[in-house]
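The instructor's notes for this session suggest beginning with a concrete chain rather than abstract definitions. Hand out the sequence below and ask the class to guess, before any prediction is shown, which regions might be ordered.
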Amino acid sequence: MSNPTFRGWLLDLYLNQQDGLTLWFISESDDSRVCFTQRFPVTFYAAGASDDLRRLWKALRKEPGVTKLARQQKQDVFVVDPVDVLAIDVDTPAHQVELFHRLEDQFPTLIWYDADVTISTRYIARYGAFPLALCQLEADSQNRIQSLETLNSRWDVMPALPPLRILELAPDVDPTHSTVQALNLRSDRFSQSLPLDEHGSYLHTINAALSAYDPDILVTDWGDSWLLPFLLRQSEQLGIPLALNRDPSRPVRWQKEITYFSYGHIIFRPEEAHLFGRCHVDRKSAMMWSDYSLAGTLEMARVTTLPIEKAARVSPGQGISAMQVITALQKDILVPYQKRQVEEFKSGLQLIQSDRGGMIYQPKVGLHSDVAEVDFVSMYPAVIIHGNISPEVPLPDVLTPASEELGVVPLTLKPIYEKRVALKVKARSYPPDHPMAKTLKARSSALKWLLVVCFGFLGYKNARYGRIEAHEAVTKGGREVLLRAKEVAEEEGFEVLHMYVDALWLRKKGCSKPEHFEDVMHKISSRTGLAIALDGIYRWVAFLPSKTDPRVPIPNRYFGVFQSGEIKVRGLEARRRDTPRWIAQAQTEMLTCLGQAKNRAELPEALHAAFHVYEQAVKRLKQSQVPPELLVVNGKVSYALEAYKSATASVRAARQLQAAGMQIRPGQRVRFLFMQGEPDVYAWELGGQVDPAKLDQHKYLELLAKAGGSVLQPFGIDPQVLMEWTLKGGVQLPLDTWNKTLLEV
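After discussion, reveal the predicted structure:
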C-alpha cells in the first residue's frame, strides 16, 4: 500500500534533534497547516595533509551518528586540480553542526568544506524546495516524509502562492519614548485595540486570535526590541501562557544582537525573536521594509531560499551568498568554510590601472531642460554575466569572455537578472495604481538589491566566491561600456551632460520625445552588448555643486522633474536618514511645487509657490509651532563611546542614554533633539514631554536653510544669502532674477 500524497506550500523548515527536520506546509486542498518530519543526513568534507586526514578518520570511525567515511576528489573553485578530501556523512543536521565545531578545535590545520551551510540552502540543493514552494510529497502514518517533489520554480514570474494569514500587532506609541497604553491587533478579518490592563485580558485576546486565526506571519512594530519581550514577561508574571509558536514544543528563539562592518559602515542589528511553525517579521528591524515591504520580503525568501524571518532582517549580501552556495552545491563544487585566498601581488602601476572604480563624468552644474536620462539595465550584473566574471574562470578581455561555460557568480546572477526584467515588463501591463503593479514593483525592487550587492560582494574579503581581481574586472568593463556609450552619443550629435556609473544624461536641440532617443539608444546597446533603457525625459534637471565650493560639481547631487510629473531626487537632505522629518517634508513639499510646472513658462509661478512653502516653514519654526517629534535627528554612533575624543551630537545623546542605564552598541542609531543651553542635546529615548520653546531654534533654522538652499540654488538664490535671510532677515533676496534664469535654461 502506497503512502498518502500531500500537496502544499512550504512555509517553515528547521532542525529537529531526533528526526532531522521539521517542516510546515499550507495545504492546497483544505487550507490547513500541516507539520511533517524528515530524515536528512548531511555530508561535509575535510582536506589537508594525508597524515592529518588519517588521524581524523581514526577519530571518527566509531563516532556515534557518523554513518560513512570515504576519501574522494572534489573541485575547489580556487584550486586548478581536484582536491583530495575526506567525506563525512552524519545522520542529522543538528549532529553535524555539533560535531563540526568539535572537530574544528581538535584539527586546526585541516581545511573544511560544506561545513557551515545552512539547512535551507542544503534542502533546496537536494530537493529544489524553497520558502513558499508548491510541493508534492508522500508521508507515512506518522507524517514522516518519504519523498518530495517541488512543482514550481524560484524563477516563476507569476507563481501560485498560498493564502497566507497575516496578523499585525503593534503598540499604540513608540515604546522607546512614550508609555504604551494599548496594543493594536489587525488582520484581514478583524481590527481592535487592546488596553494594557493589569489583569492581562489583552493576553487572552491575543491567544484567542492566535488560536482562531492561526496566522502564518506575525508582523510587528518593535517586536524584537520591546513587544515580544514585554508580552513574554507579562505572560510569565500573570501566569497566562502565550502561544506565539505554532509548534507547541518550541519556545521563542532569541538571536543575539550583533555589530558588523559592511560597505564602509558600522551596522548594528538588535536582538531578534524567531518563531517555529510561523514567521515573525518586525517592520522596525526589517532591513529593506521601507523599500519593498512584505511582497519584496517574500520574493527575497523565495529566490535566496533564506527563511522568511531571516530574509526580512539580513542584508541582500547574505542572500547573494546563499544563492552562490546553492549554485556551487548543484554543480558539485566545494563550499569553503573559511576562504584562504589573498589578493595577487600588483605593482604600483598595476594598482593604478586596475583599481579605479566606476566611471564618473562630472556634470555641468546648473539648470538644463529637455534632458534624457538613459540607464544600463543592472549594468554591473550584466557586465558580470556578459563577461563571465567569476573567481574560478579566466578574466575577460574587458568585455569579451575568456570562457564559454558560466562560472558560479554569473550562473547565480543570470536568472535573477532575467526575472527582474520579466517582472518590470509584467508590471507595465497593469495601470500604475493597480495593486498588482505595486506588488510586482516591490518584488522587482527586492531583486534589484540582490543585483546591486553582487558586485560589491565580488570584492568582499570574506565572500566565499569573492576575488578582488574579478571585482576590478567588473569596474573595468563598466568604464568601457560608458566610454563606448559616450562615443556613440557624441557621434549622433548629442551633448553628454553627465555620466555616473551606469547612466548618461543626454541633450540635443529639438529632441524632447522618447522616439527622439530610440536610435541612439539602439546604437549604444549594439556597440556595448548590454541592454539600455530610457529612465525618462526631464522637463528640467538641476545638477548641484559642492556645498563648500560652488565651482566643484557633485556627481550624485541633483534633482529634476520628468515629463510625467515624477520628481527624481538624489543627494538632497530629504534623502538622508539623519534629516529631521519635518525639514525633509518641507523640502519635499518645495520640490512638489516645482513639479507642478508643466513647462518653462509655468516655472516662475511654481518657484514662488515653493518659496512660499519655505517662508511658512521658517515662520512656524520661529513661532515654536513644530511638534518636537518631527524635529528628531536620527543619528548614529560608529564606535564604542569611550573611543571618541571629540563628542558629536549623536555621541553626546548616546552618553545621556548610557548614564540612564541603557546599553549603546557601535552602529546603533541614536535619536535626539537640539536644545538651548546645556546640555545642548536631549536623547529622545529618555522619554518625557519636551517644551518646543526650549528647542535650539537657531540650529533648526540652519538645517532648514540648508535644505531650502539646495532646492533654490539652481534658480539664482545663493545658499549663503538664504541662510542669512533666514537667520537674521534684512537681506534682499534676488527673486527678480528667477524669470531671467529660466529664460536661459
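Then share the key points. The mean pLDDT is 91. Residues 166-215+217-277 form a domain with the Nucleotidyltransferase; domain 5 fold (CATH 3.30.420.10).
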